[in-house]
Design brief:
Strand content: 15-25%
CATH architecture of the largest domain: Orthogonal Bundle
Main location: membrane
Mean pLDDT: 77
Keywords: ATP-binding, Glycoprotein, Kinase, Membrane, Nucleotide-binding, Serine/threonine-protein kinase, Signal, Transferase, Transmembrane, Transmembrane helix
GO molecular function, one term: protein serine/threonine kinase activity
Number of strands: 24
CATH superfamily of the largest domain: Transferase(Phosphotransferase) domain 1
Organism: Panicum virgatum (Blackwell switchgrass)
Distance between the termini: 34 Å
Number of domains: 3
Helix content: 25-40%
Low-confidence stretches: 1-32, 484-488, 526-541, 554-559, 611-622
Membrane topology: Single-pass type I membrane protein
Oligomer: single chain
């Protein structure tokens, strides 16, 4: 950095503070478009809520934007990972609370008679600026995928078509299930109002649908006092520059109100960010001179990064703890490209899989990426991360143990594949699709996995699929439709064309759709029988070759009349997913619909237009 440059850079925060204040003033003078209350059904909608298509977005906090199903008079939160997921039943502005219910008209895990959520509702709300009221609500927990006590008081009535599910009321976060419930059960929870229970002896298993439909109480941070004072001065409450502002009749912030504090906070924040930027530049210039010492400080830097993620980080274990958990790493479950997996047991008796990572290059970004990506997820089809280890050069991940191992061993053996049945294969395919749909749409940032393949799909004791291994995952904000990447990543045979060559399109969630399509084709066995003939050919990794082989060989697969329809359906969906142009591939939501439709409703996809290159391709090993 040239002499004298640092003092000049230190003036930057002051300039940015003045710019931020001027920008806030300019934003306030864009006009005074009315934020008059709107209605949907019997709801009166005003700040901090806004009604999409009726009121400008700044009339409320964007997190509380509502859509209105006018035909039914129902209001729904707009910014959720599924359309019409949370229905707003009533709003109590004086107490900063509202009642909403989860829309469970869709079936649970494909079971048309199970109208319960397929995710933990409280976790799904963690990214919204709300609190689920502990005083007004209790938790209704559903357990499944295990052998339950034959007690009619806890089993769902009427029963589900394919699953045996029990319902329990657990008061408070982290409350334990009754001791008679096996430890290997899967579970999902939904808050319900305490007042919805008509009497103390009422069985939730018999009234679960009504309890869910009557919703639960949610509270938002208090804005009532300042908004009321704003309206008393003739102003309007708006959400501008990421904060509450009181806008006067001339379209400018009311200068004599407390609302100007929001502008000052924004300017101060920008100035602080600029100052931090200057500090970072200074540190980087020093690091260039001290490059030889960087390795010794690497682990402490990682610890600082972990502190920055704070709530997203699960329990941390010492390396000595891992040795106790795994019995000195004696039970090896398998080895992959990023490490070795060992079986172990926690102190409470739970079986776990401990993934001991190979020594990573650089500053451990892949390790942190997997930890944070895992922690951001809460879904029945995503493997549950229980903890991690960062001890010197040793790094490990601890997640729930999957009794049936990976999908890989079932689809590469004809005898094993037929043993689990084609109907079960389709259920597994739908479960994987639901997990990917959640990753792509289920939280504030999309998670693109980049390594969907049979080896990374784990099966629990009931063959429920769980997506695992987030070592290559990338995060991008929901507003970003494309992702910028410096190098190809993934596994040859499952990697999308645009990932290794930008000439085919931009990298996005559709890259995972391509990998999922190749996974479907592997599950059907479209290439397994001829794998030995093309093992050393680059042709095997391009969709035009897959299309030709499937059209030619589909009828030759060893499937019975009863299962041929399932095999054909999975094949057709797979071919749609591996279309060369990302824009021609369906979203994962559309994939789920296609897998649940009758095969006669599916069209034959066009033949992919991609041609095999004449020269070999070289992929990154990351």
């Amino acid at each position: 950095m040239p002499p004298g440059a640092l003092p000049l850079l230190l003036l930057l925060p002051l300039a940015l503070l003045r710019f931020a204040t001027a920008t806030a003033d300019a934003n306030g003078t864009r006009g005074n478009t009315s934020c008059a209350p709107a209605t949907c059904g019997n709801l009166s909608i005003t700040y901090p809520f806004s009604l999409s298509g009726v009121q400008p977005l700044y009339c409320g906090n964007p997190a509380f934007e509502l859509t209105c199903a006018a035909d039914a008079g129902r209001a729904y939160l707009a910014r959720t990972f599924r359309d019409r997921l949370y229905r707003v039943l009533s709003i109590y502005y004086e107490s900063n609370s509202f009642v909403m219910a989860v829309d469970v008209d869709s079936s649970f895990v494909g079971d048309e008679r199970c109208h319960i959520p397929d995710f933990n509702v409280s976790s799904g709300l963690s990214l919204l600026p709300v609190n689920v009221s502990a005083a007004a609500n209790t938790n209704l927990t559903f357990v499944y995928n295990c052998t339950l006590p034959r007690n009619a008081s806890v089993l769902l009535q009427p029963p589900c078509a394919r699953l045996t599910i029990g319902a329990y009321v657990l008061d408070g976060e982290g409350s334990a299930l009754p001791p008679e419930v096996p430890r290997n059960c899967s579970s999902v929870s939904v808050p319900v109002q305490r007042s919805s229970f008509r009497n103390a002896s009422e069985e939730p298993a018999h009234e679960y649908r009504r309890l869910i439909d009557e919703g639960f109480v949610v509270e938002w941070p208090s804005t009532t006092a300042e908004c009321g004072a704003c309206k008393g001065r003739g102003g309007e409450c708006k959400f501008v520059e990421l904060a509450f502002q009181c806008i006067c009749s001339d379209g400018r912030p009311c200068r004599n109100s407390r609302d100007t504090r929001g502008v000052i906070k924004i300017g101060t924040g920008i100035a602080a960010a600029a100052l931090l930027f200057v500090i970072i530049l200074t540190v980087l210039s020093l690091q260039i001179k001290l490059r030889k010492r960087r390795y010794r400080g690497n682990e402490s830097n990682i610890e600082e990064i972990l502190k920055g993620y704070d709530s997203l980080i699960p329990k941390k274990y010492r390396y000595s703890d891992l040795k106790k958990i795994t019995g000195s790493f004696k039970d090896n479950l398998g080895e992959g490209g990023y490490g070795t997996v060992f079986k172990g047991n926690l102190k409470d008796g739970r079986k776990v899989a401990v993934k001991l990572l190979k020594q990573s290059k650089g500053n451990g970004e892949e390790f942190l990426n997997e930890v944070v990506s895992f922690r951001k997820t809460s879904h029945v089809n995503i493997v549950n991360l229980l903890g991690f280890c960062l001890h010197g050069p040793k790094r490990a991940l601890i997640y729930e143990y999957m009794g049936n191992g990976s999908l890989e061993k079932y689809i590469y053996s004809e005898e094993t594949k037929m043993a689990i049945g084609w109907e079960k294969l389709r259920e597994i395919a739908i479960g994987i699709a639901r997990g990917l749909e959640y990753l792509h749409r289920g939280c504030n940032t999309r998670i693109i996995h980049f390594d969907i393949k049979p080896h990374n799909i784990l099966l629990d004791e009931d063959f429920c699929p769980k997506i695992a291994d987030f070592g290559l995952a990338k995060l991008c904000h929901l507003k970003d439709s494309a992702l910028s990447m410096a190098e190809a990543r993934g596994t040859i045979g499952f990697i999308a064309p645009e990932v290794f060559s930008r000439g085919f399109g931009v990298v996005s969630t559709k890259s995972d759709v391509y990998s999922y399509g190749m996974l479907l084709l592997e599950m059907v066995g479209g290439r397994t029988n001829t794998k030995g003939n093309i093992e050393n050919s680059s042709e095997a990794y391009f969709p035009n070759w897959v299309y030709d082989r499937l059209v030619k060989d589909l009828q030759s697969h060893e499937v019975t009349c009863e299962t041929e329809e399932i095999a054909r359906q999975m094949t057709l969906v797979g071919l749609w997913c591996i279309q060369t142009a990302p824009s021609n591939r369906p979203s994962m939501s559309r994939v789920i619909e296609m897998l649940e439709k009758n095969i006669n409703e599916l069209e034959m996809p066009p033949k992919p237009l991609l041609s095999c290159p004449s020269e070999p391709l070289y992929f990154s090993s990351t």
